Amino acid sequence: MARICLVGGVAVLCVAALTLMPYRTVARARGDTAPDRGCRATMVWPVSAPKVTEAFDPPPQPWNPGHRGVDLAASDGETLLAPADGVIAFAGKVAGKSVVTIRHGTLTSTFEPAETDLPVGSGVEQGDRFAYVAGASDHCDGACIHWGLRNGNDAYLDPQARTESRKIVLKMVTES
Fold first, then answer.
1. Which of 23, 51, 73, 112 has the largest count of CB atoms under 10 Å?
2. What fold does the segment set 52-162 form as a domain?
3. What is the pLDDT of residues 62-111, one digit of tens each?
4. Residues contacting residue 107 through CB under 8 Å, at least 6 positions apart
5. 55 or 18: whose pLDDT is higher?
6. Are the C-beta atoms of 75 and 144 separated by less than 8 Å?
7. 3-state secondary structure (DSSP) of residue 131
């Protein structure tokens, strides 16, 4: 009985925290004023009309080839929106490619080809315009933006999975 009470109490606290926690949507970038009250994703798409042209395909081992992000249809000059709150961590060339990264706590989003007018260290909020599709790339050739997502220095994650709405539900705990 004590275990059920403990689990129930923790669940109630989690739901209360999520309900009371302030959140931002892409409303600022779109000009909307009414907040979204339904289920929400942890990240928003970095382009206004997302169309995945190549999906995330992680390698079986970190050193093997794979597609460590998603490619989204985008043309040169298109505005990029911050998928989550963060800080511009890098803007420049990597192996001749134009790259901008945003650090979101332990996660880092990487965009290629991308350029920004913001200095490194600038804070961005989810939905803010932070960069644009431009510069050199050996990957997209003016037809896409590559969005990669990494957890620390260890794992590549699927950015598309972070854009899907998630619903938190409580489930009964039964004793066996």
1. 112
2. Glucose Permease (Domain IIA) (2.70.70)
3. 788 888 999 999 999 999 999 999 999 999 999 999 999 999 999 999 99
4. 84, 149, 150, 151, 157
5. 55
6. no
7. strand
